[in-house]
């Protein structure tokens, strides 16, 4: 009689390989689902407004076989800028939250969206601020800059006040295709750099000691990540204004969809695009009055932020 001995590591290796395959399949399914949802919202945006344009007519316009002022001048640029800005906000928000290991670490909350990206880099590199302290400092900086903005608005001439308020709220009104160039460049450069650093950024979430032991250059990765986040958010904000809570909401939604063990950067970017395009469609078509996209995302994000703060206070986190 022969006895077959099984290597004890073999079942574990098979189990880990099977788990890895499931994670990959789930990640691909999430990306495919988000792309399908974004495509559906794009079709709705191009077809539905004050009047309805049949999908066949929209397709002929996109193929150059017909002309439509509504599609090519009003709805089309609005959709393109919404998608690109949403990708920037979502990707920047996810990278920021993973880097600082805090769900409050959204660019618009910690002050990057208000123009304090340089202060954030200075705080990390020179002052050695931890994630929690940087977030609290960023909230203070954002509040201070908000006061300066309020003072400028109170003293602004009437002809420029409306444009300033629309930009501060975050709006896709008046979108033009020539504004898409900087967004594409930011996604190619800063977004590409973040994706290249995604493994190191994810390793930082394990803690500085473990990341350093695994060979991650902490200072370089932190500075590069913050600079890329600043670039994405700054270009998107310059194009469409400060659309509230997109980066803040994208990361946790993407993490919940993708599951543990997967980088949330690509799903978060797609979630950001879905949020911006969907919120703009709701503000322009579904609600009884027309609202800028920033008003809709603010209404969605504010309750989530308050709930998160309450949960963190109960857990004793800062």
UniProtKB/TrEMBL annotation:
One of its GO terms (cellular component) is plasma membrane. Keywords: Cell membrane, Membrane, Transmembrane, Transmembrane helix, Transport. The chain crosses the membrane at residues 79-100, 109-129, 135-159, 223-253, 265-287, 293-310. It is found in: Cell membrane. GO terms for molecular function: transmembrane transporter activity. It is a multi-pass membrane protein. One of its GO terms (biological process) is siderophore-iron import into cell. InterPro entries: ABC_BtuC-like, ABC_transptr_permease_BtuC. Pfam families: FecCD. It comes from the Bacteria. Belongs to the binding-protein-dependent transport system permease family. FecCD subfamily. This is Iron complex transport system permease protein. It comes from Loktanella fryxellensis.
